[in-house]
Specification:
Layout lengths: L6 H19 L4 E5 L7 E5 L7 E9 L2 E5 L5 E4 L3 H11 L9
Antiparallel strand pairs: 1-2, 2-3, 3-4, 4-5
């Protein structure tokens, strides 16, 4: 990760998170891009049916590949697997098992 974070890196991260935001909204989740100087943007995701179910998703490169990350610093998947990332986040924030619905 470049230090300090350049505008180009922050813009690329915001693009990836914006794509994820759209995918999550198609599942009915609320997602808002969070930005702060000298930090990569993050995505705050909320289940509107149970607003205590929230997660903050980040995106950053590892080994020359951009990955989405959970707030506990575990990778979700690479950004090319957008549908998989959205499904995993939806599953974690679900009030019931999505397959039972």
């Amino acid at each position: 990760m470049p230090n300090p974070i350049t505008p180009a890196v922050a813009a690329e991260a915001a693009t990836h998170l914006g794509n994820l935001q759209e995918a999550l909204q198609s599942f009915g989740l609320h997602a808002r891009l969070l930005t702060q100087d000298d930090r990569l943007p993050r995505l705050r995701v909320i289940n509107p049916e149970a607003t205590t179910l929230t997660e903050t998703i980040s995106v950053r490169p590892r080994d020359d590949q951009w990955l989405f990350w959970w707030s506990w610093n575990a990778p979700i998947t690479d950004v090319a697997q957008l549908a998989t990332a959205a499904e995993r986040i939806r599953y974690v924030l679900a009030t019931t098992s999505p397959s039972a619905a």
